UniProtKB/TrEMBL annotation:
SUPFAM superfamilies per UniProt: Ubiquitin-like
Pfam families in the cross-refs: Ubiquitin_2 (PF14560)
Gene3D superfamilies membership: Phosphatidylinositol 3-kinase Catalytic Subunit, Chain A, domain 1 (3.10.20.90)
Organism this protein belongs to: Cuscuta epithymum
One BP annotation, GO: post-chaperonin tubulin folding pathway
InterPro entries in alphabetical order: TBCB_Ubl, Ubiquitin-like_dom, Ubiquitin-like_domsf
Name this polypeptide is given: Ubiquitin-like domain-containing protein
Domain Ubiquitin-like: 14-98
Gene Ontology MF annotations: alpha-tubulin binding
Length: 176
């Protein structure tokens, strides 16, 4: 049995780029059915961008950026406004008390950050700092350097002559 999406004609779906007036970083490509009401489109957008249906105004722009229309009648079908693939649907949040209105979502510098003193952090259990202290210390001294100074002229000659190291495994190990 075919799914509901497979039963819908392809020309009934439209792919639009969605932008938001308050959230500059919000950009999404969303598919809509042309037979949906404008209110149903707003409900779908509410789930994507967070602006409530009652606080949302929609504007439709063509692919060149020219405004085609404002979707003002919630009961009209979305297809009435003749949306095409590649058009842009712009969400305008008219709620002045919206969380996105003051730039709180885009600009994280407006949000107060949690800070803790080093002394208070040291008293906590299960911190990364305590985990790191319990790790075994890595020995940074090696018994043999990869490139021995006495082999350096040989390595240079092999590399220059062939454009790469020789096929000999010992030469590779000594020259890397």
């Amino acid at each position: 049995m075919a799914s509901v999406i497979q039963q819908v004609p392809a020309d009934d779906l439209v792919l639009l780029r969605v932008t938001h007036s308050n959230i500059k970083s919000f950009l999404a490509d969303i598919r809509f059915y042309r037979q949906m009401t404008v209110e149903a489109v707003k409900e779908k957008l509410w789930k994507k961008c967070g602006t409530s249906v009652t606080s949302m105004r929609l504007e439709l722009y063509d692919d060149s950026g020219s405004k085609i229309s404002e979707l003002s009648d919630n009961m009209r079908p979305f297809g009435f406004y003749s949306p095409q693939d590649g058009y842009r649907l712009h969400v305008i949040d008219i709620d002045p008390s919206s969380i996105s209105a003051g730039g709180w979502i885009d600009d994280t510098s407006l949000v107060e950050k949690y800070t803790i003193s080093n002394e208070a952090y040291d008293k906590l259990d299960g911190t990364f700092r305590k985990f790191k202290e319990h790790l075994p210390q890595k020995d940074t001294t090696t018994s043999e350097a990869k490139v021995r100074l006495s082999h350096l002229p040989v390595c240079v000659k092999i590399y220059l002559a062939h454009g790469k190291y020789s096929n000999s495994q010992t030469s590779k190990n000594n020259c890397m």
